[in-house]
Design brief:
The chain has 22 helices and three strands. By secondary structure, the chain is mainly α.
Length: 548
């Protein structure tokens, strides 16, 4: 049966990645391969591409006709993910240009170290095994780097230089948690990894960097194709126009809010008032972030805005050292689908040697970010998505539904009454300007109409961002095309969907119905999320007609 074929294909794809990508398995909450590292050779990546093409043929051969709506969505979303993955691996092929060994090793260790799925002692044993295999993995990745890009090579060098700081944290934990012999084994494996990553950084600096090209965009044609494959239902021109319009509207709104913060104040003056109202030191900022998270969660429960899943938890931590240079403010790491305890990690980046960045941890900004990263933003959405039983949807992570949802929540929570004061609203609107700038930069940078420095200047000038943060932001934009536009465009699509659902349902509509349907559907592409709502509303209509 076609429905069984969809499930079988999803299972086969999932099992392929569990077998060949042990870090993926760990991230999903499957721990049989926690002591392994993936194959870093070029041949391994080519084998993945070959498997992807075979999966595409299988998916395209399954007829949509006759499938239930749920299975139709599974199949269409799976096709979308396969097509995007193949495009990224074959036509963009950043794996040939971006030296990611340092980040990959750090990520492989991070999940094991930070998630409490087993006693720390057991997780450290797996970390030791991964460290012992990291030396070979680091060396293997050299064969992938055939088209180096100068900026990305510099990022790779910095990642390698920062990884030892994270290794030191792991070693300190091992001294207290492991017997002396096991702690010694981990320390030796860590030392060898440190030597390998140091040698890799020198190789990048001396041999690769001089050959690096100055590319900072994928080109207009590839960017258009990428947007088309995303199935957003919008052209590049329409996306750009939305960014322009929201930028204009938000700037007017920001000017009005400045007057509410202080009568007669300019936007810059109000921005200084907001940014200068921050904790004295980073530990206090971390503690305030934790408090804001708890308050946002309590607000959702009190207002009955969404169903909070059982066994979920959000922990606030410092951003690991090896990725701080590309995460200037904050980020979120989701729990694995199969973890019993759905523990999410909200990472906040210390100021390090940039004291001016303490201004980015202002109180108003922290409360707004608590909504975006935690409740009901990334954490709630992703733990709810994990509850969906479909294995196909576990393989799908539509950026417009993930980032768009978190951005949508900023508006929604303020409309519901959470932190609706002028200062927090000012930050939220300024962040909206930042997201509008991201659309313009995303399109113009990758279409060759904007330079790296122009993009940094735009964020500083229009979004009021501190220059170190703007530099880190734009570095990431260069290797994540069509990702940055997803925040504001995703929010736009969700708001449009909500308006359509509310209009269709009339008095029967509730925010909780809309939010729960979206949250527990999985991180579906916008096009397929709309199919789900249309089917659910048809079912509700039939029940109403029957008087049920």
């Amino acid at each position: 049966m076609p429905e069984a074929d969809v499930d079988a294909l999803a299972r086969e794809i999932f099992d392929w990645y569990v077998e060949h990508e042990p870090v993926f398995a760990t991230h999903m909450g499957l721990h049989q391969s926690d002591g392994l590292m993936p194959d870093g050779r070029r041949q391994a990546k080519l084998a993945e591409i070959k498997a992807g093409r075979e999966f595409k043929e299988r998916a395209d051969a399954i007829a949509v006709k006759g499938l239930s709506t749920s299975k139709k969505i599974d199949l269409l979303a799976l096709r979308n993910a396969i097509n995007l993955g193949l495009f990224e691996d074959t036509e963009l092929a950043f794996w040939e240009s971006f030296p990611s060994a340092g980040q990959a090793v750090g990520s492989a260790l991070f999940t094991l170290f930070m998630r409490d799925f087993a006693p720390l002692r057991d997780r450290l044993v797996s970390i030791t095994s991964r460290l012992e295999k990291s030396v070979q993995y680091i060396d293997q990745t050299k064969g992938r780097l055939t088209r180096p890009v100068k900026l990305w090579t510099e990022i790779g060098i910095e990642s390698n230089q920062r990884l030892p700081m994270f290794l030191e944290v792991i070693e300190r934990a091992a001294k207290d948690a492991l017997p002396p012999a096991d702690a010694s084994r981990l320390a030796e494996a860590s030392a060898r990894t440190r030597q390998a990553i140091g040698a890799h950084a020198r190789w990048l600096k001396e041999d690769v960097l001089p050959k690096g090209k100055g590319v900072t965009g994928i080109g207009a044609a590839k960017f258009r194709k990428l947007v088309r494959l995303r199935e957003l239902g919008l052209t590049v021109e329409q996306i750009y126009a939305i960014g322009k319009k929201i930028l204009r509207d938000s700037k007017r709104q920001l000017k009005a809010l400045a007057g509410e913060i202080k009568p007669g104040a300019s936007v810059d003056e109000a921005g200084e008032i907001v940014k200068n109202d921050h904790p004295a030191a980073f530990p206090e900022a971390l503690a305030y972030t934790e408090r804001a998270m708890r308050e946002a969660r309590a607000f959702i429960a009190a207002k009955d805005l969404a169903t909070l899943p059982p066994q979920e938890e959000l922990r606030v931590i410092e951003t690991p050292s090896y990725i701080r240079h590309v995460i200037p403010f904050a980020a979120y790491s989701s729990p694995g689908k199969f973890e019993k305890n759905q523990l999410g990690l909200y990472m906040v980046t210390p100021v390090e040697d940039k004291p001016e960045m303490m201004r980015e941890h202002n109180y108003a900004g922290t409360r707004n970010t608590a909504v975006h990263e935690g409740y009901p933003g990334h954490h709630l959405q992703l733990v709810c998505a994990n509850a969906n039983p479909s294995l196909a949807r576990a393989l799908v992570s539509a950026t417009e539904s993930i980032e768009g949802w978190a951005h949508y929540c900023e508006d929604m929570m303020k409309a519901a009454g959470f932190s609706a004061d002028p200062r927090t609203k000012f930050v939220q609107v300024r962040d909206q300007i930042w997201r509008a700038c991201r659309i313009l930069i995303d399109v113009d940078l990758h279409s060759g109409r904007m330079t790296f420095d122009d993009a940094v200047d735009l964020l500083v000038r229009e979004a009021g961002m501190e220059r170190p943060g703007a530099l880190a932001e734009v570095k990431r934009y260069t290797y994540t095309p069509a990702y940055q536009l997803s925040y504001l465009i995703g929010k736009h699509l969700i708001q449009r969907l909500r308006a359509d659902v509310e209009r269709s349902m009339g008095d029967a509509y509730t925010d909780k119905f809309f939010h729960d349907t979206f949250l527990y559907a999985g991180s579906l592409p916008a096009k397929h999320m709309r199919l789900l709502f249309e089917d659910k509303m048809r079912g509700l209509g039939r029940l109403r007609r029957k008087g049920l």
